[in-house]
Amino acid sequence: MEKPRKTELFQKSSIRYTIFIYFTVSALIMIVLIGAAVYGRLAGWVSDTLRKENQVVINQINLSVDSYLRTIMRLSDSLYYGVIKNADYQAEAEMVDSEMMLLYDNNKDFVSNIALLSREGELLSAVPAARLKTDLDVTEEKWFKDTLERSENLHFSMPHVQYIFDSSGNQYRWVITLSRAVEVTKGTSTSQGVLLIDMTYESLRYMLDNISLGERGYLYLLGSDGGLIYHPKMQLIDAGLAEENLGTARGYRDGDYQEVYRGEKRDIIVKTVGYTGWKIIGVIPEQGLSLDNLKVKLFMVFMAAFFLFLLAVINAYISARITAPIQELEKSVNALEAGELDAEVYMGGSYEIRHLGRSISDMAKRIQTLMDDIVMEHESKRKSEFDTLQSQINPHFLYNTLDIIVWMIENEQKQEAVKVVTALARFFRISLSKGKSIIPVRDELEHVRNYLMIQQKRFKNKFTYQIEAGPEVFPMASLKLMLQPLVENAIYHGMEFMDGDGEILIRVWQEGEKLIFIIRDNGLGMTKEKAEGLLTGETHSVSGKGSGIGVKNVNERIRLYFGEGYGLSIFSEPDEGTTVQISLPAVSCQELMREESGR
Predict the structure, then answer these.
(1) What is the set of domains in the chain, with CATH numbers?
(2) Tens digits of per-residue pLDDT, 520-530?
(3) Torsion angle of C-alpha atoms 508, 509, 511, 512, degrees rounded to 10
């Protein structure tokens, strides 16, 4: 008896009590786990973290160097396209010097010299250097020849001591030279020349010095030809007192590598600098990936994050365990709100949720019963109202028709009077149709044909009409008094005040699983807003002259009997006539009547 009591007590326990028990147990478990894990050690991911940080540093340095070089290239473009190319050096030499000096002043923090040389090696302009060294023939220099041979490229030299200018201020200064071929205009002639920009090596070294890649990591810079541009121990390497694995590094592409150099394992990160083809190479010795102080901090952060993660997972599981029944019940309620009153209501979880589920299920069943009764009553009432409305004929129409008959008899047009009386009789016969609302297309077309004949006599042949329908659509189901109100609209609103003869076309055909009716007139037409108003009832279709059944009522009757996927569409433009399209299901009248009688 003890176990059933405990089970019953647990099932009847409240959500608040369940949450309290679960979270208390989870807190105790987490305290035990945290106390036990303090004595453990975690390793392995510190090195990965440092590698990622080093990659970020290399990428940042790459962006900085790339930005620096692009600044120099933009300066080169400004000098060439903004100053040299557009100037006649024979007449505007002083203007060129002035503008070159202005650009130099704006960039002198990282530019040592700017010079323009002719193809023959003549110094045309130089800032701030005064002149070339007298014993130097620049045309024999390799960089000068390469620049003229590959005139479409920008050329960056290796670091070197500035040696071509005779200027005490810039003498013995380390520079990297950017050179490019340019066109120099002198009067009517144009010749090649060389634009030279000396970048200060210190500005580049300033960006690369003091970069820390872990405890012992460093980076160096190789030129496109594999020469060493920068190294933190560059002077020692030049003096032969230090070595670097340059031969292997020259073959590296962008990416991460591991190598063993002089018995030491080290990680290599390679990144190419933009247009120049220079390579930034980061070197991180394996021992440099473990820092004791950083490791302790990262270990403590990791432990805290790890246990917070565990606590979040456990709490999430507990919350899901508790709230899952509520969520399932919410889904059932959402389904009921969406109108699915026959949907199954969830009845699991704690005692309160199961009790609530049973109550909601009972309520849904009662609502379903009440709604079914209301729908049946409303539908029966609507059909009764529509049937009553369609059985009524506006007395104006009947009076006018009888008036036409009397007029014909008085004028001894007996044959015409007989035709009108016959049409009126058939009109009434089909209007009654033994109380049926669904009739064959044949009868509906006959009904509207009789109506059109009577109206044609009344309006003294002011309009003509044409009915086109194949025998295959005659036995199909149609709604009684569906076409007449639409034809009334065409006559009374479309043609009554128009000049000239009116034309009415009625056409019926089957299109897939639908039966399509078209009523088209060449009358006055209407605006799009008025056409939409006919379907919503905001605009009255016939005012005291026809049957009294409006376009809105026809549309509602079609949807009531056949469903929301069927009904009317109106297409009209002022002075362009009007077309009304009716879509019905393409089913036979007998089949539809059998289905209705079987319900």
Answers:
(1) 87-204 (3.30.450.20), 391-598 (3.30.565.10)
(2) 988 888 888 88
(3) 120
